[in-house]
What does this fold into?
Amino acid sequence: MSPIFPRPTLVRLRGMVMLLSICCSICAGEGIRSRSEIKAIIAHSPDPKFVPYGQELKAAEMVAAQTPNAIAYLGIGASMEPLYPPNTAVVVAPIEYGSIKKGMTVVYLDCDGQRVAHCVVGENRAGYLVRGINNPAADADVVTADNLIGVVVEAYSARSDGRRELTLKDKGKDWQSIPRRGRKS
It folds into this structure.
């Protein structure tokens, strides 16, 4: 008995299904999955204050000028969404290495010399483990006393939907959403 599909068509169909499943798994993303990590981030990372579009960095620079040894940076990636969307400006202040807590958003220099702002999710002998909220795993680099720039103490965003939600994921399904509210500046 002959198959329903000619052999080449069946092979192409299987290939398309495999490609589709790979694309879906990449698009789904993993993000932060641990309830304790989400709670720590909520407790130790500041909500963004909403400002008019284009004023994010200016607002952060004004606060940084009044905060001893602080500096303002403009974030460009999406790894910290929904807490800090792209173009969120942050004020980074120095912190003693031993004072870092799980859930804080710290800024550090990675092995390529790039500044990275991610949340502390753990610690090992080499240093603090950090991860972007949207990233599936901890960063390859750890935060040490030598590469630490500081901790995010303020954030400014032009996104003014008034609502943030950090969602815990379990096997690709949302199982808990924790609302966050931004503050108008």
